[in-house]
Amino acid sequence: METEEFRATVHRRGQASILTLTGELDLSSYRALERAIGRVLQADPELVVLDLAGVGFMDVAGLRAVLAADRRLRASGKRLVLAAPPRSVRRLLSLTGHEQAVSVLDSVEAALDQDLR
Question: What is the DSSP letter of 44?
């Protein structure tokens, strides 16, 4: 079984940065997410949306990278929203007790429509 290579693509929309992730976010790829988050933060967005619709798999290393990004953003008064996470990612959040730790919405549009105050 071939695994899909992890990719992170950034798009800006107003004061938000949308980071679209595809592939597997795991021990072999979490550092790529950390680097992508670092590049996104250089643009100083008010909101970072992680579009997870294309993530086929996420392990605890990937989850740790997401939670670290959330802490980093909160420390600077910014917000992180997970958008469209697949069932497997929602299950990981639930099993690890982190379903309330980060904002999770059903779509990128729902995340962008939120009041940023």
Answer: -
